[in-house]
Structure formats: C-alpha cells, structure tokens
Amino acid sequence: MDLQLNSMTNLAGHFWSELEPYRKCCINSDNCETYYRYRPTVIGNYWPRNIIFGRGDPDIQTVDGISYPFMGLGVFTLLVTTNKMPTEFHVSMRRVGDGTVFSGFAIEHNRNRLECFINESGIFQAAIEGAVLELGGEIDEYILSNISVRESEDLKTFTFEFVETSLVVRAVITDNFLNIMTSVPPTFKNHMKGLMGFFDGNKENDFTAAGGRWYSELSTETDYETLHNEFGMTWKVDKSDWLFSVDEIRSQIQSDIDNGSPFTPVYDISFDSEEQRLAVVEACRNDTACMRDVALTGSMTFATNVFQVLEEAIEDADEVTQLYRENEPEWAGEDEDGAGNQAHSSISLVLLGLARLFYTM
C-alpha cells in the first residue's frame, strides 16, 4: 500500500527523489511521461506530495489550507487522530512580548513517545521514551523505538519520523524557539482534528473545537479574538494530560507559564508612528505576518532576518503546491480506517514560530 511503498525517511530525501524530478520533468519541461515511467502507479495515479506553508506570527496552517494566527500560553493539541492506533501531538508555547513562540512538542503513537524542547537560553533537548538523547555524536541518523532521527551537521535542524505511520516532523531552531514542520500521512484524513484543523478536504469545518462544535462563520481576517477563545483555547491541555514526561522539560514549561502569566494575546498590528510603520512595511515587503512579528516583539531584526531567509524557499514551494492543487487526481477508495487510499500522501508542512514558519531543505 502507498503508506509503505511511498514512505520517506526524511523530508529532504523526499524533495530530491520526488519533488525535484517532478519539477524538472513536468514543470520546467514536457517530459512528464519520463517522470511517470520511473514513478509507476501504485494505487490509482501516483502523485507527488504537496507542500503547504503556514506563515506568520505564529500562523498555523490547517491541512486543508487555512492560515490563522494563534498565540496561546501553555500546552495545546496540535493534532489528535481517531484511527485504530491513534496519534497525539502536543506543542508548548512560551510568551515573548505580546505574543508567543513554540518552545517544544511531544508526540505519542502506539506507546512510542518523542519529546523536544528548547529553553530560553537556546538549549535544545530531545527524548525518546523518556530518555534524553545525546545529540551531536558520530552517528547523525538512527532509529529508536520505531522513531527515526536525523540530525543536521550544525545541530540546528532535526527530522523525526514515526516509522509505523510515516508522520514526519522537522524541528528547526531559531534563536530560542522552535519552528516545526509536520508531514501528515493520508491515513489521518477524516480522522484528525486539533489546531491543525479537521482534516477532510473541506475548509469550512477546519475550526472544529475540542468539544465538537465547528465555527464556519469565523473570519480569519477580523475575528481573531473569537477564533482564539472559541477554537484555539479549547485545545489547551491540562497539565495532568501533558505528553511531556521528562521532569526537566515539564518543569521548564510550567516555569514559562508562570513567568508569562497573566497573558492576553495581541493580534493587532500597530506602531508608535507613521514613520515607523512605513519603515516596517518596506523591510517586510508589505508581508502582513512579518509586520505582525515586528509589532509584537518590538524588534525589526528578529522578524526580518527570518523573513529574508524563508522568502525564496516559500516562493518555490508555493509554485509547486499550486500546480499540485490544480492537477491533483481524485482520491479513490477507503482503507480499513476510513481514510482514502491515496497513491500520494497529502502533506501539510506546518511551520510554527513567532517570527516565521519555515521549511528548509
């Protein structure tokens, strides 16, 4: 089945083996027949995994394609599935100015648990089954408890894959917070909800609260306060239910909550003067998410540095994603869990962080 045959060990490998050949054969030339000769049909029509970018301060993008800002303080459910063997994914958020950043995440599937966290000093920790990993050793790619780990040479990027589900998560360190990319497998379709939305191909019900109520009337342009309270905050996790199990990490998350309280998020973009506003507009090239970063942090450098690094990668991915969406074949059939038997895997690369949500190959 597709989940097995088209599984990838890491996002970079998938890019070079699938996306880049597709770009060269089908976008930059008329050699699609050559591409499909070496990428034969598995179930229905094979299709490359699309890349969806969440951008902003911190904008979260649902799998079905809605971007929205959400700034919570504490631990929240990014996604949870109702498959026969469920997956749960928590993220921790720390206060910075009038906003928050993502400080960590914890994922559990079939009793295999991964935890990652970065403290305010920029020290990063990763743990599997409660045992803290010794990062930066001679081996930079390995598998523990059905979780594959890949470390970058500079120890700024870490890619994890839950082998049984092909759920792939990449964490990229920027300053003292994490940017997180999540690759969602097709078996999650019709079985996934949380801050990443109700994944069923329909944007209208993405804002489904933890209690089951969904808010199709919410405007991501004007109704941030309602979105925050009626949707986002319903996915806050009680401390007794945190997936984080390492004592040091739990203690630091609790300290971040205590130090950041009381907290009222600010979603408005405002500046002290028109001169300052114009300067920010120019530096951010009129990008709303970047401008919100500057307004919340009070730091032009903090926001624009990340913005400049991401711009080219985001533009390239948007081009490929748009083509996929225009030509993607219909999904056919259902597996035993009710998810479509897609020959491709639908991906949402959710890039989470205060300054910018990003993808790096």
What tags apply to this protein structure?
361 residues; alpha+beta; seven-stranded antiparallel β-sheet; five-stranded antiparallel β-sheet; 8 helices; globular; disordered N terminus; disordered C terminus
Strand content: 15-25%
What structural category do the secondary elements indicate? alpha+beta
Question: How many whole angstroms does the radius of gyration measure?
Answer: 20 Å
Given as residue ranges, the uncertain stretches (5+ residues, pLDDT < 50) are 1-13, 40-57, 327-361
Mean pLDDT: 76
Written as H for each helix and E for each strand, in order along the chain, the element string is: HHHEEEEEEEEEEEEEEHHHHH
What would you call the shape?
Answer: globular
| N- to C-terminal distance | 27 Å
Largest sheet: 7 strands, antiparallel
Helix proportion: 25-40%
Order of strands across the main sheet: 8-7-6-5-4-3-14
Number of strands: 14
Specify the number of helices. Answer: 8
General description of the model:
This protein is 27% helix and 22% strand. The chain has 361 residues and is of the alpha+beta class. Strands 8-7-6-5-4-3-14 form a 7-stranded antiparallel beta sheet, with helices on one face. The chain has a 5-stranded antiparallel beta sheet with strand order 9-10-11-12-13, with no helix packed on it. It has a two-stranded antiparallel ribbon with strand order 1-2. Helix 2 packs antiparallel against helix 3 (32-38) and helix 7 runs antiparallel to helix 8. The chain starts with a helix and ends in a 34-residue tail after the last helix. Residues 1-13, 40-57 and 327-361 have low confidence and may be disordered.
